[in-house]
């Protein structure tokens, strides 16, 4: 099903490409927040299991994907500004639920800390409050590639680290995407990495105390960069949280194999469509296929 596309203008400053996957029978809407270097295309398979149950909203940040042609991209955008854009889209589309992936979770948590009244629950995937040794190595190497605008090196770094468990076809898609961005996108990501390193996780961890809705954290059991063990430290800061670990999955939990796709689907729908209870979610395993960056 083709989405309805629109450019949403925010504060007369940014123009954001949006995609709305409507479901005539759905009463609720979920918005998905991209990870770094990603576009709406990275959620192609996620939409397949969410759209039968919800209206689904995707968007590209002003500097990326189908938004960048509508913005001058002469200034870097902070994670705080991304959070503000997200809050605007939540109101515009009357969103009930939120799902974020990887570093998109920084702006997502900053937005949730402002307690948007419409949001009932949120799912945070492939993210943790700890910058562990593998992640620090990845970010440090990424800083060098991004500042040099070394396109091929960026593609190789992503596939050799967080994307190492992706099927070879998807690694080729990843490399093609990551090595063909505009210069401002690499420099924007360099700015974000520098900002995240300076945050040292305090800003988005401390803000969790303000989040007043149930949260589900999903991580792959093979993901050494945002590990399931590290993610459980969120329990020290969030009022109401659950955790799900996807078997035999790395960073791209619903992309790497069929079982990961189905297990992620079951974890998300089980959380979003039932009353939240504190504890650890234990989804079952099943089947799939996909692409993301």
TrEMBL record:
Domain (AB hydrolase-1) spans 29-253
Q: Which InterPro entries match?
A: AB_hydrolase_1 (IPR000073), AB_hydrolase_fold (IPR029058), Carboxylesterase_BioH (IPR050228)
Write down the SUPFAM superfamilies for this protein, in alphabetical order. alpha/beta-Hydrolases
State what protein this is by name. Answer: (R)-3-hydroxydecanoyl-ACP--CoA transacylase
Gene encoding this chain?
Answer: phaG
């Amino acid at each position: 099903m083709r989405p309805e596309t629109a450019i949403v203008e925010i504060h007369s400053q940014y123009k954001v490409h949006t995609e709305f996957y409507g479901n005539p029978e759905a009463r609720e809407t979920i918005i998905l927040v991209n990870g770094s270097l990603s576009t709406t295309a990275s959620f192609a398979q996620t939409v397949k299991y969410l759209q039968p149950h919800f209206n689904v909203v995707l968007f590209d940040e002003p500097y990326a994907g189908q938004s960048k042609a509508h913005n001058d991209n002469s200034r870097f955008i902070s994670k705080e500004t991304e959070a503000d854009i997200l809050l605007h889209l939540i109101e515009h589309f009357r969103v009930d639920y939120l799902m974020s992936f990887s570093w998109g979770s920084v702006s997502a948590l900053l937005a949730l800390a402002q307690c948007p009244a419409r949001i009932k629950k949120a799912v945070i995937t492939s993210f943790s409050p700890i910058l562990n040794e593998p992640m620090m190595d990845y970010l440090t190497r990424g800083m060098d590639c991004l500042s040099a605008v070394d396109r091929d090196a960026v593609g190789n770094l992503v596939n050799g680290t967080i994307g190492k468990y992706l099927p070879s076809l998807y690694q080729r898609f990843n490399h093609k995407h990551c090595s063909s961005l505009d210069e401002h996108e690499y420099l924007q990501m360099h700015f974000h990495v520098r900002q995240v390193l300076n945050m040292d996780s305090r800003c988005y961890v401390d803000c969790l105390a303000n989040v007043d809705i149930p949260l589900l954290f999903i991580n792959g059991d093979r993901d050494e960069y945002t590990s399931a063990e590290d993610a459980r430290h969120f329990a020290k800061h969030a009022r109401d949280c659950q955790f799900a670990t996807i078997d035999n999955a790395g960073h791209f939990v619903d992309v790497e194999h069929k079982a990961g796709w189905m297990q992620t689907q079951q974890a998300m729908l089980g959380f979003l469509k039932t009353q939240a209870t504190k504890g650890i979610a234990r989804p079952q395993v099943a089947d799939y296929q996909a692409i993301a960056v």
